[in-house]
Sequence to fold (218 residues):
Amino acid sequence: MAAEIFGERLPAAVRYAEHLATSGVDRGLIGPRETGRLWDRHILNCAVVNETIPEGSRLVDLGSGAGLPGIPLALARPDLRIVLVEPLARRVDWLNEVLDDLGLPIEVERGRAEETDVRRRWGGADVVTARAVAPLARLAGWALPLLRTGGRLVAVKGASAEREVARDVVAVRKAGGGEPRVVTCGAGLVEVPSTVVLVERVDRQRAARSSRRREQRS
Fold:
C-alpha cells in the first residue's frame, strides 16, 4: 500500500514517520496516542489526496503543523511545488529540521494566510490544502484569496464534511468560491478513504451574477 503510493520515496516516508513518532511527539506536534496510527490516520490519509491535484501544481499548505498534508503530498508527488505556511515558530523550526533531513525541496513560511506578506509572496497558487485548520466558511476566507482564478481549495475533512458544506456554502460563495464538492480519495489503496472538500476559486463578478440569479429564482 505505502510502496504503491510513495514509490522510490518510501524510505523517506518511513523516515518522516519516525520523526513524527519521536521529536514530533516530544515537541507537541503529534499526540502520544497517535503514534500507533501514524500511517493510516495521518500519512497515507494525506498522501492519497494527491488524486485531486493537477500535475505540476504550485501548492500552498495552510496551517501545516506537523507537515500534514504537505509533506506526504510532496513524497507522493515529486512534480508538485509546495510551500508550508505555519504561524508557530516552534513548528516552523521542526518542519525545517525534518525537511533538511529528508532532502525535500519544500519552502516553509512562518505566517498566516490572511497576512499581506503571505498573500503577496504566495498568491496565485494552483492549489491550497488544509487539514483540521478551521471550519469551511473561515477556511475559504483565508484560502481562496491565495488562489488564482480556477485554482482549487483542497480541504481534508472527516465524516461531517457534507454537513459542513450544507452549513457554509453561502459563506464559501461570498468568499469567491464555486459550489463545494465532497469527494473521497484512496479507494482501493487505504482501508478508510479520505474525505475531501473541493472548492474552485471563481471570478468574483461571475460569482456575483450567479448569486443574483439564485436570489431571483428563490
Q: What stands out?
A: The mean pLDDT is 94. The beta strands are 58-62, 81-86, 107-110, 125-131, 147-157, 181-185, 194-200. Residues 93 and 210 are 44 Å apart (CA to CA).
